[in-house]
Write a structure and sequence with these properties.
By secondary structure, the chain is mainly β. It is built from three helices and ten strands. Helix 3 links the parallel strand 9 and strand 10.
């Protein structure tokens, strides 16, 4: 799992291709708090048409300002592809990577299907799994699944 999804709320992660969209990046914990006096820049890399998976940067970084403790990055995502976004934090002469993540753009026909990510076959300790149903559900949420189904063998009632 991308560690930035643990420490930041990034929404949306799937966007409509060719439409201007605002991505909200919100730090979840104090160690990622936006610093007063720091400057923040964004680098945007469309992976298929303007960059590569080695992080080659095409285009110029642009500055962004925090809004109520979070960032709002408005871009138009062209093509059906992955788009890498990197936020740099600059304090004085020091520059560090504050956050990096991907956003995926889909053409309207696929985007309108509202893709979700999940697992339809999981087991808990009431069957041949090792953890409680609550732990299984919490772990699925933690890794970003939108849905899950516990499919324990034999008894249905204990998994409720």
């Amino acid at each position: 799992m991308n560690k930035n999804f643990k420490y930041f709320n990034i929404f949306p992660r799937v966007v409509a291709e060719g439409k201007e969209t605002t991505i909200k990046v919100e730090p979840l914990y104090g160690h990622n708090k936006i610093k007063d006096g720091a400057k923040y820049e964004v680098v945007y890399i469309p992976m298929e048409t303007g960059g590569d998976d080695k992080g080659e940067i095409i285009g110029k970084p642009f500055e962004i300002q925090p809004v109520d403790g979070h960032f709002e990055i408005t871009l138009t995502f062209m093509g059906e592809q992955e788009h890498r976004i990197i936020i740099w934090e600059i304090v004085g002469d020091e520059q560090r990577k504050y956050c990096s993540f991907s956003v995926y753009s889909l053409k309207e026909d696929l985007y309108n299907l509202r893709p979700y990510k999940g697992d339809m076959h999981m087991h808990s300790c009431y069957s041949d799994g090792k953890e409680s149903p609550a732990y299984v559900a919490g772990s699925c949420r933690k890794i970003g699944l939108d849905f899950m189904a516990v499919t324990d063998h034999g008894l249905y009632q204990p998994s409720l």
